[in-house]
C-alpha cells in the first residue's frame, strides 16, 4: 500500500497540502537560531529531489528541541516524507542562502502542524520500486557538468573572480582534519579543508564551514571519490595569492556523479594515486610545520652541505635546519614552488626530498 503523495512538480504557492511530499535529501544545512522581539525561533533547511527534473527547498520551523530532533534523524541521502506543508512563493531571483531549485514554491513546515518521517528505501508506504528510484537520484548532478571549471582554470584565475560562483567536477585528493576555533563574537565554529584535483591540475583547496557539509565530507575517500559541486564560491586567498573554493549554503555536492565526465575522472583518479604522491605544492608538503619548536633546531648548514644532504638522504625524508645565507638570485617567476624564506639572511627551513 502506498501513501497519498504529491510530486514536487505539481506544487503551487499559496496553499497548504495534506498529501505527503516524498523526496531524497540532496542538501542539508545546520539548524539556526533566529532571535527576535517575539522570542527565539529555530529553523532547519533541506533541499529534496523526487525526479531527475524536480527539486525543492524545505524549511522546518519550531522550538530548539523540535528542530534539533528533526536534524538528528536526517542526513544527505535520506528519503523523507513531509506532510501538512505550507507553500509560499519562492523569491524571483532565488534565495542567496539556499540552493537553486526548480520548484516555484518554498515548502514551510511548522512544529505545530507539520510532520516529517524518514523512510527506508524498502518501506511499504513508498510503493514498489519507488525507494530504489529515489536512492539513485543521489548521483544525479545538480547542474550542467559541461560548464564546470577545471582546476587549471581556477589556478589561472585572478582576484577579479573573488566571490564569484562556479560548478566544479573534481576528485578528492586529501581530506584534512577538522579544526575547531572560536569566532570574534564568542561562537564555536568548525572548518574542514579538502584538497582536490582533476586531469588539469592538483592541490585545489576546498574549504567548508557548515557542520553538515563537514560530516558528509568525512565519508569521502581520497582518489576514489568524485565530486560535482554546483554553485561553489571562488574566494581569493591572500596567503596563497590565488583562488580557493568554498562551500556555501547554496552549494550542493553530488558524490560519484552519474555522467561520462565523472566516470572518466574516476578512472584517472585511481591511476593517479601513486603519481600525485610525488608532486610538491606550496599548500601541502612544503607548508611549514608551526608545531615545531624553532628553539630546538640546532642543525646548521651551509650551501655546500645543503646540496650534499639533498643528494644523500632517502626519498620522503624530512629534516629541520638553519641556513645563514645571502640570496644572489631569487626567481619569483619560477614554477618551482618548493622554496620559502623566513627572512633574507637567516633561513629556517623544513627540507623534504622528492
Keywords:
MEIOB; elongated; MEIOB-like N-terminal domain-containing protein; 16% helix; single-stranded DNA binding; five-stranded mixed β-barrel; OB fold (Dihydrolipoamide Acetyltransferase, E2P); nine-stranded mixed sheet; single chain; 354 residues
Write structural notes for this entry.
With 354 residues, this protein is α+β, with helices and mostly antiparallel strands. The chain folds into 3 domains: 8-137, Nucleic acid-binding proteins (OB fold (Dihydrolipoamide Acetyltransferase, E2P), Beta Barrel), CATH 2.40.50; 145-276, OB fold (Dihydrolipoamide Acetyltransferase, E2P) (Beta Barrel), CATH 2.40.50; 294-352, no CATH class. Helices cover 16% and strands 34% of the residues. It has helices at residues 64-73, 130-136, 151-155, 211-217, 260-276, 303-312, and strands at residues 16-17, 21-28, 32-34, 41-49, 55-62, 79-83, 85-89, 105-110, 115-119, 165-175, 179-182, 188-198, 201-208, 226-237, 242-246, 252-255, 300-301, 318-324, 346-352. Strands 1, 2, 3, 4, 5, 6, 7, 8 and 9 form a 9-stranded mixed beta sheet that branches. A hairpin with a 5-residue loop joins strand 4 and strand 5 (55-62). The longest helix has 17 residues, at 260-276. Residues 280-290 and 334-346 have low confidence and may be disordered.
